[in-house]
Amino acid sequence: MVGPVNIIVGSHVWIEDTGEAWIDGEVVKISGEEVHVQSTNGKTVVAKIANVFPKDTEAPPGGVDDMTKLSYLHEPGVLNNLAMRYELNEIYTYTGNILIAVNPFQRLPHLYDTHMMEQYKGAGFGELSPHVFAIAEVAYRAMINEGKSNSILVSGESGAGKTETTKMLMRYLAYLGGRSGVEGRTVEQQVLESNPVLEAFGNAKTLRNNNSSRFGKFVELQFDKSGRISGAAVRTYLLERSRVCQISDPERNYHCFYMLCAAPPEEREKFKLGDPKSFHYLNQSKCYKLDGVDDTEEYLATRRAMDVVGISEEEQDAIFRVVAAILHLGNVEFAKGKEIDSSVLKDGKSRFHLDATAELLRCDAKSLEDALIKRVMVTPEEVITRTLDPDSATGSRDALAKTIYSRLFDWLVDKINNSIGQDPNSKTIIGVLDIYGFESFKINSFEQFCINFTNEKLQQHFNQHVFKMEQEDYTKEEINWSYIEFVDNKDVLELIEKKPGGVIALLDEACMFPKSTHETFAQKLYQTFKNSKRFTKPKLSRTSFAISHYAGEVTYQADLFLDKNKDYVVAEHQDLLIASSDTFVAGLFPRLAEETSSKTKFSSIGSRFKLQLQSLMETLNSTEPHYIRCVKPNNVLKPAIFENLNVIQQLRCGVSAVRTFYIIEALQPRFWVMELTSLIFALISLRAFWKLLESAVLVILQNGRFMSFSIVLVFLLRKFWRESKLQLI
Ligand SMILES: Nc1ncnc2c1ncn2[C@@H]1O[C@H](COP(=O)(O)OP(=O)(O)OP(=O)(O)O)[C@@H](O)[C@H]1O
Questions:
Q1: How far are the Cα atoms of 310, 371, 388, 472 from residue 339, in angstroms, in the given order?
Q2: What is the three-class DSSP state of 337?
Q3: Res. 103 pLDDT band, cuts 50 70 90
Q4: How far is the CA of 162 from the centre of ligand 1 (A)?
Q5: For residue 237, what are the β-bridge partners?
Q6: Distance between start and end Cα atoms, the chain
């Protein structure tokens, strides 16, 4: 960030602070490149002049609703503005066209009631306070007026409020495009009620969020010519499968398991269920209940939502029967068998749970037992049956549980889509993307790799749509804009997805080669990317690798990459379930055409995800995007706590926000130009005049000396011209 040039003794400034990110104070001395600052918290700090930023002493005490209205556009100014607004429960702030939403961690019903929706309906952007409804309104109006599809990209870290924001967007779009007074299940009702269904099966309590979505989601609302919702489709991405079998304290498994254990007694009896503490897949963590959540009520609410979405009672019974079967399956334990590397059921309890699983899945108990402890290998000469040791049998059990659960989740998504129905005649859509934000933990595995790959893609999309568009315009108009150049992330994306030779391709190769281990995979990466600026091999490690992402460097542990990337169903499991006498269960395991052909195609989670992302990007590229950046103000998930360091970290890492700061950086030393332009904008509001003024400024200022001022002015003029254009529409 470039420091300001006009700091003098007596200036009020912001200086960096390890505890608070930024603190304010007054300059008491300047010696050479150093400034001495008396901070408001009583410390005297010496800092480099380049790292000190002017503070606007006349800023309104409640902050400004758009960051571009700040006199000084810099990081401490932005942070302070968000903090001031948050204190007043003003959780929304614009940065130009981008909405920043700070999670209030408390219900603010007045913000989202029907009265509020009525207010935003038809209101021009910026006319009312910043709001999710305003973003949905802009998207909807743009769609109606320009006949173009729009999308709203909601990003942020876990617990920042993406899902809640998405729900508000959907509610508002359903309000605008819904059929009020229509009897029966409308498309919009079904879309809204699909949320609780997906949440019951795809959300769980994690350390960072009590209701964390463990999958990504893109909801596409289709509209007819008159702007009514005529169809919808939900696309989901990468459900976290490992959670079905493995949880750590104080997290929980997927909500549906606890709901079913709290179902009315007759249901529990039917499924032979009891206390969640008695199930291995649930009792690895001591957390069973969520504060303020009644699982019995949630069970009934989920069933009601399923009714609305169009899932029949029979199907609902089958769904919960499968959920119960997974719980019983998790309690099947193994002991060493008589032969080497073989196993048997551990005890009578395991036998009971195995029988219960078989009964619920409507398959043969002996076949289930064999599918868990034996493997059949077909060679050209003979058919060999191999037994599994207890550890491998446990692995086989967990693999079966994960496969069944993920197939069940996919079934639900398909059912929702079929039931809501698609409108083949719809020409325009509004898509809402609620997808995991950038992640960097102490230990990062394949999941983080995929999540960060997604964020790189979204970052590229943002670059292309916002900056490249601007750049193209400037280039066309022969304006030098070199100092707003941004770091392109094409090279990281190549490193990840290039075919052949990218990380995903190398991982697939490793998975197909039987002798590969995570070590040989890591060695291959080291060798391939030894000259890449974006790749490093951490010293002393033989299996980890680091990628320099747009939001920072992340070190990945390659140890489980191979296992997690393999996307196949054990043949014995497939054969077992396809033979189920229950059509629902058998239907979860259809035999694919390629499986029946002689050449079995290798399929990997990474490659499939890459294709899904490609298709998502194609959809997004055909729409006019809008951005909402959700921010989590604290890690204790409580209202009224705004932790500066936490927030700044998110703003620096976030898709879009990072780029916003680029503009801010570019503008920062020239803040007085902002004031001048604000004055001009306040005086002028005619569209034609904008264009004229823009050309005039270009002609007058487009010479070497004033180039930087001209670019700032033109940038702002364009922005405001576009906005005034929007309002005229
Ligand atoms: N606008 C809001 N009003 C009130 N509470 C909110 C709002 N946004 C978020 N919250 C609270 O924060 C919690 C976390 O929000 P949410 O589940 O939307 O986060 P997320 O970003 O989708 O997280 P994840 O990526 O883990 O799914 C919610 O359960 C809710 O309690």
A1: 51, 18, 10, 71
A2: coil
A3: very high
A4: 6
A5: 216
A6: 37
Ligand 1 atom at minimum distance from 637 CA? 12
Q: What is d(CA 654, CA 659) in angstroms, rounded to the nearest whole number?
A: 9
Give this prediction's pTM. 0.87
Pocket test for ligand 1, best of 163, 195, 207, 238 (most atoms within 8 A of CB): 163
CB 478, CB 695: distance < 8 Å = no
Q: Is 105 in the pocket of ligand 1 (CB under 6 A)?
A: yes
- DSSP category for residue 128: S
19 known ligand binder: no
DSSP 336: E
Tell me the pLDDT tens digit for each residue of 461-474.
988 877 666 666 66
Q: H helices then E strands: how many in the chain?
A: 28, 21
Residue 160: how many CB atoms within 10 A of its CB?
A: 24
Number of Cβ atoms within 10 Å of the Cβ of 471: 18
**Whether ipTM exceeds 0.90:** yes
Burial code (b: 16+ CB inside 10 Å, e: under 16) for 341-354 equals ebbbbeeeebeebb
Counting every residue, how long is the chain? 729
In a mutational test of the pocket of ligand 1, which residue from 211, 298, 454, 653 has the highest number of ligand atoms less than 8 Å from its CB? Answer: 211
Which CATH code for domain 446-568+603-618?
Answer: 1.20.58.530
Q: Is 521 in the pocket of ligand 1 (CB under 6 A)?
A: no
Ligand 1 atom nearest to CA at 208: 26
Alpha-helical regions (H) of 463-536 = 469-476, 490-497, 503-512, 518-528
Radius of gyration of the chain (CA): 28
Quick check: CB of 160 below 6 Å from ligand 1? yes
The total of other beta-carbon atoms located within 10 Å of residue 415's CB is 19
Can you name the CATH fold of 1-55? SH3 type barrels. (2.30.30)
**Pocket lining: 74 vs ligand 1, CB cutoff 6 Å:** no
Q: Which numbered atom of ligand 1 lies nearest the CA of 167?
A: 18
More confident residue, 638 or 692: 638
> How large is the greatest C-alpha to C-alpha distance in the chain, in angstroms?
92
286 pLDDT above the threshold of 70: yes
Structure-model confidence comparison of residues 178 and 135, the more confident one: 135
Distance from residue 619's CA to the centre of ligand 1 (Å) = 26
689: pLDDT confidence band, cut at 50, 70 and 90?
very low
Q: Hey, which residues does 102 pair with through a beta bridge? A: 631
Spans of all domains in the chain: 1-55, 446-568+603-618, 684-729
Known catalytic residues? 158-159, 163, 209, 212-213, 437, 439
Residue with tokens 């959670």, as numbered in its chain: 243
What mean pLDDT, rounded, does the chain reach?
A: 87
CB proximity list for 547: less than 8 A, separation 6 or greater:
452, 492, 495, 496, 503, 534, 535, 553, 554, 556
Evaluate: CB of 158 within 6 angstroms of ligand 1: yes
